[in-house]
Design a protein that fits this description.
315 residues; 11 helices; alpha/beta; Arginase, Chain A
Length: 315
């Protein structure tokens, strides 16, 4: 049986739309509405944020608030590392998805010799860099930081010295880079990405599984395929961005995209992954209740969270 520790990261400085910092509270309200004592059942740690930066002018247009994101990387990676070293299974609930780059860093810092696989359920590839980003939003960059990639071949921006230095810090946190190899990443439900990201998918041999493929073969078969594909990995991290769900249900997130997974497909898929002993960390992110109605997104997120943790407890 695994000892679960909840790590709450209500940081939203990496997102382009405001409100994801409220996602954790929305999920807690969903738990109360379902009469669940989930949030009093496990030890939890809340990470201090840098959200005050939202009220300050943006210094680096191609990596917005990267100084704050770097500070979050330091805090979150340390918390994840400590949890794992204390024999906890970290379940991270975060505001925006930029925080997951810090989670990956923390796992690697705790297990420097691990060959870490990443299952990334997301409508987006999150493989932009400050050199290629169309928006400057840092939640589009965590996987590029984790594979220590600038994507210089496809650069469209020149960086100022300070931004460049901060980006190097993100890539090199824990003095380990790259944290993961492209061949050990599986992107599930990817459907909204740019040609610069496509170039990295091809360059690094990143595996992509579409929503249609999940629908055609079924979650169980896909889960088996993914675990087999990552069979060389010693540890596997599952990151669930709620925008992997179809836009008909994922209203409560900053970047909804059509043709995503259905709620049941995502829940079944993640549950199957959680049965595997190599899974070492689970993260859920990008719930934004300010965009939602009747807290639906948070309720779906809570159902997936609760079911996943129940499976971890049984394993």
């Amino acid at each position: 049986m695994k000892n679960i520790k909840l790590i709450e990261v209500p940081s939203e400085i990496g997102a382009g739309t405001r409100g994801a910092s409220l996602g954790i509270d929305a999920i807690k309200i969903a738990a109360l509405d379902f009469m669940s004592n989930f949030f009093v059942h496990f030890p939890s740690e809340k990470i201090a944020t840098e959200n005050h930066l939202l009220f300050e002018p943006i210094a680096s247009p191609y990596a917005k608030r990267i100084n704050g994101v770097a500070a979050m990387y330091d805090k979150v990676s340390e918390a994840v590392k400590e949890a794992i070293k204390s024999s906890f299974f970290p379940v991270v609930i975060s505001g925006d998805h930029s925080n997951s780059g810090a989670t990956i860093a923390g796992i690697k810092m705790a297990k420097p010799n691990a060959k870490l696989g990443v299952i990334w359920l997301d409508a987006h590839a999150d493989l932009h860099t400050p050199y290629t980003t169309p928006t400057g939003n840092m939640h589009g960059m965590p996987l590029a930081a984790a594979i220590a990639e600038d994507n210089a071949e496809n650069a469209v921006h020149e960086l100022d010295e300070e931004t460049r230095k901060q980006w190097e810090h993100l890539k090199n946190i824990g003095n380990l880079q790259p944290k993961i190899l492209g061949e050990d990443i599986v992107l599930i439900s990817l459907r909204d990405y740019e040609k610069e990201e496509q170039a990295l998918i091809e360059k690094h041999g990143i595996r992509v599984i579409t929503s249609n493929e999940v629908r055609r073969k079924g979650p169980e078969s896909i889960a088996r395929t993914v675990i087999r594909y990552l069979s060389d990995c010693t540890d596997i991290y599952v990151s669930f961005d709620v925008d992997c769900l179809d836009s008909s249900i994922s209203k409560g997130t900053g970047t909804p995209v059509s043709n995503g997974l259905r709620e049941r497909e995502a829940e079944d898929l993640i549950s199957k992954f959680m049965q595997n002993r190599k899974i070492c960390c689970f993260e859920i992110s990008e719930v934004n209740p300010t965009l939602d109605k009747e807290n639906l997104m948070a309720e779906i997120a809570f159902n997936i969270l609760q079911r996943s943790v129940n499976i971890l407890m049984m394993n």
